[in-house]
Amino acid sequence: MRRFLRFLCLIPLLSTQSAAENVPLPGLRQPVEILRDKWGVPHIYAKTTDDLFFGQGYIAARDRLFQLDLWRRVNTGKLAEILGPAAIPRDRIARLVRFRGDWNKEWTTYSPDAKQIVAAFVRGVNAYIDSLRGKYPIEFRLAGYAPGKWEPEDCVARVAGLLMTRNLTREVERAMDVRDYGAALVEKVRPPDPFIHLQPPAGLDLKAIEARILRDYNAAVGSTRVDVDQGSNNWVVDGTRTVTGKPLLASDPHRPINIPSLRKTVHLVGPGWNAFGAGEPALPGIALGHNEDIAFGFTIVGIDQADLYVEKLNPANGDEYSYNGQWKKMEIERQKLAVKGRPDETVQLRYTIHGPVIYEDPANQRAYALKWVGSEPGAAGYLGALSFARAKNWREFLDGAATYKVPSENIVYADRAGNIGWLASGFAPIRGNWHGLFPVPGDSGRYEWQGFLPLSQHPQEFNPSRHWIATANQNILPKGYQRELSYEWAQPYRYRRVAEMLEGDKKFSIADFIRMQQDVTNTAAKQFQRILRKHAAAAKPPMKEVYDRMLAWDARISADSVEAAIFNVWMTRLPEFLVHSPLSARMEIGVTLGLLEKEPSDRALRLSYDRAVTELEKRLGKDRSMWKWGRLHTLRFEHPLRVPQQYALQFNIAPVPRPGDGNTVNAASGPDFHQANGPSYREIIDLSDWDRSVMTNVPGESGNPGSGHYRDLLDDWLAGRYHPMPFSRKAVEAATAERILLTPAR
User: Fold this and answer.
1) How far does Cα 19 stand from its chain's mean position?
2) Does pTM surpass 0.85?
3) Which of 381, 399, 539, 559 has CB 3.0 to 4.6 Å from 161, enough for a Cys bridge?
């Protein structure tokens, strides 16, 4: 606070270097200064907390109004109002999973002032909408509707957290697979990690588990669900391993790469706040970045935070279900949905003791209820960062993270005192007598959660003797760890490569960390080369030449590499020749290579290679010198609004060739060899001097197609170039390109 007051005395609110745009707005107490730097990042300076977050809400709406409105509709169940009847199932699920408990506890769980902060943010969003006076951005004119006003409760919707809780779908898939193919084959093709035998819970009728159970659920989260291969990376080294003698921290969460960007960067300066980083545009604060004392970044842990309960309905009364030998009445809510092109529709929201009913099968007297951590107070995703984003040390950070629930995150930490740490955050249910790998019967009462694992028992580290910490969605369970957090993790190859680069005694610089984030060496390809080496000596033409070529390759997934294209297509064809079952299509590369190591097969290698060649010829032609990975592996930025052709160039960005794949540090995963996911936001934070920190956010900070910041960061991102994160007032002033002064309206 003292530093903040001193700053106010030294720096006049409105600099005389250039004229500012003056924007009078009702709802402000005092002026708010917004300095937008040359990369489009707003630096917001305010004298009160309310005005600070009012300013953040205003600038978020000014830069990303259509994205914000779409986010609000997705999360609150109001898509049918603009999309019509097809969106009704999605809206129903969104409304089903909204918070229904003690609202005071909901707000205070995030932080004591969370309600105040969110209310101020929402007022800022609405102030911008009001200032437009009906002249809305082009997206609304093309879509033919007006943006709706926000309520504070919109920011604590649950769909955003639900789509990050991926294990429900796996429960249903696993149950059907065990029923159809047997547990032994499923254990071979998709083994739990750590390994346990797959035993369906007592009382579960596997015939009751069908894909249609998830029909509406997938409608709500399917297009945006976070899959394992989306991943993320983070790492931190202490001062003994840096050229400055202070920690360096890197973070690059991997999510769908969209236009506008999923993340919005902001610098917040006000009472109790001086924080710079990124978060979701529709939420106040930041989710990753740094304040004056600490830095933090995250990757998904993947804690199993959900279970599907099969409820037995009363044949005489479909509103009742069996529990502990008694019929219990469901809680039922009826809500009206506005639907484009037709009268309002009433939907029923039904709940059992376990949670919202996502599907009913009246003919067989069954209902399927979702129990998940998101039903708890304070589980609205990254809003939970409001507490630890203001921490000044490790203890305060742990205290703030103790109430963080969904999604589960590996948060790496560093502070100015030189400490580094890591915490596997997020609430972890305690299951007493089952493993969470299958749906469970809901009627017996024997499959109930027994609370949540205390934070002190979560995996964590503080100042480890190796002087570095890294996570990449891999299995993070320490050796001998006795708690069950999850049996599903990302492949270990990104983590192995990061660890490979961090081990030793090298002292790292920001430039080194940039090279690490851009690294495209694939350790799975190296494992494959070790396998091929065993086959090469006895191989005959033409496979001898194939093996020699692949063994001479540097295992880098470069955009101009022919071998990278061969390797990736080959890996998609190999499973079907190792496991003769439809399940082979779901084998992950680690399982594929593991089976090939245990059961060497020249025949499988030869036949799968031939199949890969056929596919490459079909896609890229007969000239093998043109089989370059970047021709096959491209990224296209498509706006969520399907605009008429005459607007396509304004809204969308044509496909660009991309290096990397789902198992490289520079991650680039997606279906059918196209990149859909990856590190749209990257940061490298230097704790010796905040102003030396760097970042990138693709394709730009603005969501307005006519803005100069809509796609201005794309070329740098493609080239692996970063821009500064100016933090001191002097550095911000030097980088300022635009000044906006929000003033109280008279």
Assistant:
1) 39
2) yes
3) 381
